[in-house]
């Protein structure tokens, strides 16, 4: 159980997608649908649970399923020394793109879980998805093969992983990353989005130079040319602020836009029930493998210029925010300690190499002293004798002849 104030989420493990937090199952007529949530780089499902956004969705009758990216939070790969944020800062091609692809491949497992948890034989609730930044990149890539999502919202996300025009790219070099981009980046899979059953909304930040809005707008334009209508694929531009213009000034407005988009998607199926009057009650663990409450791993902020997930969420209560900041500082301290130990061992190795060089040099025999040059008088006498000897030899030869 994960409790924040009066709100509680149940914990469960989804095979292939790791631990999740989810709303409590309620009487189905009181539910409008189920929304899958993925946060941005460096954030976790616990931060999503602490945000006002999930609270608003629950107040409108939606059940929420909150998950982590691969190598993030409780899905952190402890065998890897690099966090997702650290990998992003070194080479997006080598580290960041594979995480997008790997997490996108687990979205169908989250859909299965939502249907199992909140569906019945008599009624199947529509499933939606909301992804912020990297989370939106993941959901957009996932629907190439996952077609059961009624609608998705991609907030400050891009169909082009290269992000042309971005002022904060660290692409790096990776042949495997280049191949992944060609095969799986949404901008290279346009035909997969034509006549797609999932409605897509891009929420773009007006002055975003980290994820330029032109990427999504160009993607929409190319699909418009292929006949995708505005009620299936659209974008809305909201005011931006903060680091590289990548933060929304009014995150609640983005939530309202998403609610309207999901409500419009109901026209494709059964009409939604009236919104729930109150937020969901405390959750109970359902038919899934439960996990004991654990403190989520939060990746350190390696670059001070990068936006933190706390700012990105925009909705934290001060008490929860303070707790999460402490968790981030603790993880950052551990990361710095690992770096310090690695640098120490590297310095020790260099020192050992230098000592070995000096030891071998001490064992080697000293070089012979350089030959002294002969004095000029000796050289002159030696030359005169050679000439006399040559003259004597010639005289002897003539006498014999």
Automatic annotation (TrEMBL):
Gene Ontology terms for molecular function: hydrolase activity
Domain of life: Eukaryota
Keyword Transcription: no
Gene3D superfamilies: alpha/beta hydrolase
Residue spans crossing the bilayer: none
InterPro entries xref list: AB_hydrolase_fold, Peptidase_S9_cat
Leader sequence residues: none
Stated name of the protein: Dienelactone hydrolase
């Amino acid at each position: 159980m994960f409790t924040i104030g009066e709100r509680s989420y149940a914990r469960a493990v989804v095979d292939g997608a790791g631990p999740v937090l989810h709303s409590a199952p309620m009487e189905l007529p009181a539910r409008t649908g189920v929304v899958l949530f993925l946060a941005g780089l460096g954030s976790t499902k616990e931060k999503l649970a602490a945000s006002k956004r999930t609270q608003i969705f629950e107040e409108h009758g939606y059940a929420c399923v909150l998950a982590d990216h691969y190598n993030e939070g409780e899905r952190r790969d402890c065998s890897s020394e690099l966090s997702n944020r650290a990998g992003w800062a070194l080479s997006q091609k080598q580290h960041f793109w594979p995480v997008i692809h790997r997490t996108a491949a687990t979205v169908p497992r989250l859909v299965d879980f939502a249907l199992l948890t909140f569906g019945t034989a008599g009624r199947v609730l529509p499933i939606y998805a909301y992804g912020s930044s990297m989370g939106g990149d993941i959901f957009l890539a996932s629907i190439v093969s996952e077609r059961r999502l009624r609608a998705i919202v991609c907030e400050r996300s891009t169909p082009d992983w290269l992000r042309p025009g971005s002022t904060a790219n660290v692409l790096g070099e990776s042949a495997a990353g280049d191949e992944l981009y060609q095969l799986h980046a949404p901008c290279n899979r346009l035909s997969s989005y034509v006549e797609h059953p999932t409605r897509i909304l891009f929420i773009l930040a007006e002055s975003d130079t980290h994820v330029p809005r032109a990427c999504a707008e160009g993607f929409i334009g190319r699909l418009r040319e292929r006949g995708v209508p505005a009620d299936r694929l659209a974008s809305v531009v909201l005011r931006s602020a903060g680091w590289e213009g990548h933060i929304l000034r009014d995150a609640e407005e983005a939530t309202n836009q998403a609610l309207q988009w999901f409500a419009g998607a109901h026209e494709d199926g059964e009409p939604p029930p009236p919104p729930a009057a109150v937020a969901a009650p405390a959750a109970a663990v359902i038919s899934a493998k439960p996990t004991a409450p654990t403190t989520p791993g939060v990746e350190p902020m390696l670059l001070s210029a990068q936006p933190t997930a706390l700012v990105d969420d925009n909705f934290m209560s001060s008490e929860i925010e303070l707790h999460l900041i402490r968790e981030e500082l603790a993880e950052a301290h551990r990361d710095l300690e690992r770096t310090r130990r690695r640098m120490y061992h590297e310095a020790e190795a260099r020192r050992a190499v230098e000592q070995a060089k000096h030891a071998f040099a001490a064992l080697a025999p000293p070089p012979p002293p350089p030959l002294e040059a002969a004095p000029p008088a000796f050289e002159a006498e030696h030359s005169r004798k050679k000439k006399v000897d040559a003259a004597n030899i010639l005289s002897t030869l003539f006498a014999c002849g």
